[in-house]
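Per-record layout

source: Parascedosporium putredinis
name: rRNA adenine N(6)-methyltransferase
length: 343
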Amino acid sequence: MAKAQRAKRNGSAPSSPYQKPAAAKKAPIFKFNTKIGQHILKNPAIADAIVAKAHIQPVETVLEIGPGTGVLTTRILDHAKNVIAVELDPRMAAELSCVVQGTPKQQKLQIVLGDFIKLESSELKPFDVCISNTPYQREFALRLIARPGDSLYSRLSVNTQFFSKVSHVMKVSKKNFTPPPQVESSVVRIEPRTDRPNISWDEWDGMLRVCFMRKNKTLKATWTGNKVRAMVEQNWITWATINTEAVSEKDWKVLRGEESVDDQAAGEEADAMDEDGDEDMGGGNVSGGDEPDAEEDNTTLRRLAGIKLNKGLIAAKIRRVLDSTGLGSQRAAKCDETDFCTS
């Protein structure tokens, strides 16, 4: 009589009736979209450290950009008064809502669905601290904290350090994320500065763009180069066309051909010696008996608009500023935010 064939054992089945079956591997909640930077921090120790370094006070409202499944959010809620979580992915927002549902944390959390970059300021309540696990390369973090002379020192470094105090908190290996990103990460702390000068952001950033065009060239070579000088000349003409009354009498004489740039420089040098004070850099109100007629001068400047100055007026002004600040021979790569502010 033939033997009955025994059924093959399933690899996951217990080998004895007293052995518990192996636990099935837990499937992820959903597939993460790495194209929008969905790399979830999975190391609780690092999450605790990030929240601790934020120094959150019980009376503060925290804005979190990209909360994901709430690894940081739940910890922030333990310290903050309220949390505003801005999440782009509806699936993530739903998961975060489930995590806090039915707990005291639910009342302290506001979830805003949308792209933070596209949100209007009116769509967010005021907040005191911002925490974000947004994706970026470690090199980006190093550029934020780079100082003059560092290879990564750039316009981003100057702008960041002019408006804030930046410090490096810790390195975070890509192994601490699910799924692992392609690059390593760093945690940085950025605190807004309250002692920064009240200057025009557009003018400040425009100046830095020129300085860092070739950060290892001298500032004098950069600013007196043909392309940069021509751009500054056109900008000055536009400004002078709009602000006719603010153009100095000496500049008017150069524009009208009544005085050369060399004559102007000599006159200013003499004025500086007589007054034992500052030289006239232009931009002062016109005064005295030789004051030009505003309507006539406005017409003259409008005819000049868009035409390259051939008197060397702007080049002379640039050289004068660089010489007076001692920055002509300096390089952008070696100057800090204080040097640029002085210029």
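summary: The longest strand covers residues 164-172. Residues 269-292, 305-310 have pLDDT under 50 and may be disordered.
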